[in-house]
Design goal:
The structure holds two protein chains of two kinds. Chain A is mostly helical. Chain A has eight helices and no strands. Chain A has two domains: about 70 residues, Orthogonal Bundle (Rna Polymerase Sigma Factor, Chain: A), CATH 1.10.1740; about 60 residues, Arc Repressor Mutant, subunit A. Chain A is globular. Chain B folds into two domains: about 60 residues, no CATH class; about 110 residues, no CATH class. In chain B, the strands form two sheets. A three-stranded antiparallel sheet of chain B has the order 1-2-4. A three-stranded mixed sheet of chain B has the order 3-5-6. In chain B, a hairpin with a 2-residue loop joins strand 5 and strand 6. The longest helix of chain B is centred in the N-terminal third of the chain and has 28 residues. The chains are: A mainly alpha, B alpha+beta. At the A-B interface, helix 1, helix 2, helix 5, helix 6 and helix 8 of A face helix 1, helix 2 and strand 6 of B.
Chain lengths: ~160, ~190
């Protein structure tokens, strides 16, 4: 597969995987763009990786950690959207993403979100997910189980028992 | 809904947020990354051959290298043309307003871009209703945080866009307005 084809078929999944981890689309897109650029620069090696998309996501998440460490020492700037003369954005209208699911995902602890993203959005198996995150396969399964339970509690209403 | 249906519903979200960075921009950035990696080796080789250390600084990355400039462009602001013709502008740092302005003009948008409170004195305001402003600068679909969106097809004849970036009480931001298009203000 050449790089352009790889980018075409995997960019959205990589973006969403990183978006769920970092919680901000512009940040996620920057991180994923930089990771894909690094993948292009090392494409001979990355193309032989068993899961090139996982390589991209791992690179993006590592860059986010470095970015966070760097920014801790800087004065933070509010979002561009904080300025009032920008066009206003409705959080409800026109969203292609189910806001309930997105909100439920964002309520998960960070590690559970990463496991969900890698297992469900990138379709990585437990072993590969464990390698990407640097944790044990059993821990991946435990995180996924807890995450699915939390999503179930959040998204599936429990039938109320009526007192007779 | 059982667990399988729940997982399917969650999984379906993954293709609903499109990555908008064009592959050409990724490859351009990749070239800059590759160049940066190679420079120490090249510089070392040249220094050995020439036998002088003064050759090294000449090979270090400079702001005049095309790859480096593209890197700066990706970091400071990004312009993406959507399939529907809308232009998305994400500004992260208030740098290179002239580059942003010329890129917009190259995309067919008569534009004036200034940062840090500067104004182009040649620009004259274009009378615009709120409805017209909403058409020219439509809101992007969530979940992205706000960025400037321009619909060039909604621009009335004789009008151009004015973008002014500055730091205000709420932090960094972009102001948007319509101006009368002219060679001196918007380039056309």
């Amino acid at each position: 597969m050449d790089f352009s084809e790889f980018y075409r078929v995997s960019k959205d999944e990589c973006l969403f995987t990183v978006l769920v981890s970092v919680g901000d689309q512009d940040t996620a897109e920057d991180l994923v763009a930089e990771a894909f650029a690094r993948a292009w620069a090392s494409w001979r090696r990355v193309s032989r990786h068993p899961a090139p998309a996982a390589w991209v996501v791992r690179t993006a998440l590592n860059a986010n950690i470095s970015r966070w460490r760097r920014r801790r020492r800087e004065v933070s700037l509010p979002d561009l959207g904080a300025v009032t003369d920008l066009p206003t954005v409705s959080q409800e209208s026109g969203s292609p993403v189910d806001p309930r699911i997105m909100a439920a995902l964002m309520r998960l602890p960070a590690r559970q979100r990463q496991v969900v993203a890698l297992r469900l959005f990138l379709d990585l198996d437990t072993r590969r997910t464990a390698e990407v995150l640097g944790i044990a396969p059993g821990t991946v399964q435990a995180h996924l189980g807890r995450a699915v339970a939390a999503l179930r509690d959040d998204l599936i209403p429990t039938p109320k028992q009526e007192n007779l | 809904m059982n667990d399988n249906e729940l997982i399917t519903a969650v999984r379906e979200q993954r293709n609903k947020v499109p990555m908008t960075t064009p592959v050409e921009q990724i490859i351009s950035r990749g070239r800059a990354v590759r160049t940066r990696r190679r420079i120490p080796g090249i510089a070392g080789a040249v220094a050995v051959v020439a036998g002088v250390a003064v050759a090294v600084p000449a090979l270090l990355p400079s702001s005049h290298q095309p790859g480096h400039q593209r890197s700066a462009q990706l970091a400071a602001w990004t312009i993406t043309k959507q399939a529907d013709g809308n232009i998305y502008i994400t500004v992260r740092e208030l740098r290179d307003p002239a580059g942003l302005q010329s890129t917009l003009r190259a995309d067919g948008v008569p534009a004036s871009v200034t940062f840090y409170g500067q104004q182009n004195p040649a620009c004259q305001g274009y009378p615009a209703s709120q409805a017209l402003l909403s058409q020219v600068f439509p809101s992007p679909a969530p979940p992205p945080r706000p960025r400037v969106v321009i619909d060039p097809s909604a621009l009335p004849r004789g009008a151009g866009v004015q973008l002014t970036g500055n730091f205000g009480p709420h932090g960094m931001g972009m102001g948007v307005a319509l101006v009368q298009a002219s060679q001196q203000c918007t380039g056309s």
